[in-house]
Amino acid sequence: MGKIDFGSAFSVGFSGYGKNVINLGVATLIAGVIGIVSLGICMPAMAAGLYVMSLKAVRGEGTEIGDIFKGFNGFGRYFLGALLAFALVIGGFVALCIGVFVVAGVLVFFYPMLVDRQEMGVGDALGECWSYFKGDWLMAILFSLVTSLISSAGNSIPVIGALITVPISTCIVAAAYDQVFNATAAVPAAAPPAAMPIE
Q: What is the pLDDT tens value at each position of the chain, 199 positions in all?
């Protein structure tokens, strides 16, 4: 098994395309039309036919427009392959989305902890955040999502909006951080003193 060489792949690919530009262009148009008309059912076979042509092009063999239909010789194989690839892509996307939310939930209190506990190392702070997350993962994810939405809401008003929503978000996170990690410190900020009545 070899390795990808970008320069060579681009060079050979462009050369093969250049020598078969008309046939490949017409075949791609045919594949697109048949794919649309068949509501995508024939698209795996058409894609296979395009690869039949592309492999022949880069190997220096001649191509014919009719080669685009050679994918139908293994229709079931290519259709099953397309279903599997689609399922894997969807599964990967779902895993990625879940992963993003999990990481956001773990890190929601990471910076406040680094600031508040100067003696704590970065790894230890991450470990503390992970320990909290394991015990209250759903709330951590929801809280991270809500505070991120609040923070980014200011983007609807360029520059000025963020000057309002970002500090609101960080204050909310700081208050929740104290609730979780410094329970005794989690008291409301003191209200400003009332103005003296004018007599």
A: 778 888 989 998 999 999 999 999 999 999 999 999 999 999 999 999 999 999 999 999 989 999 999 999 989 999 999 999 999 999 999 999 999 989 999 988 898 888 888 888 899 999 999 999 999 889 999 999 998 888 888 888 876 787 788 888 888 988 999 988 886 554 555 555 555 556 5
Indicate if 62 and 119 belong to the same structural domain.
Answer: no
Q: Are 68 and 50 in contact (CB under 8 A)?
A: yes
Q: How many domains does the chain have?
A: 2
Q: What is the DSSP string of 102-166?
A: HHHHHHTTHHHHHHH-TTS-HHHHHHHHHHHHHHSHHHHHHHHHHHHHHHHHGGGSTTHHHHHHH
Among 87, 122, 147, identify where a domain stops: 87
Query: Can you tell me the distance from the alpha carbon of 98 to that of 141, in angstroms, rounded to the nearest whole number?
Result: 10
Q: Mutual orientation of helices 137-153 and 122-135 as an angle, nearest 10°?
A: 110
Does the residue 192 lie in any domain?
A: no
Within a domain: 47:
yes
Residue 197 lies in a domain: no
Which stretches within 20-121 are classed as H helix?
Answer: 21-37, 43-58, 75-107, 110-116
In the numeric block, which tokens belong to residue 120?
């704590």
User: What range defines the domain where residue 50 resides?
Assistant: 6-87
Structural domain contains residue 69: yes
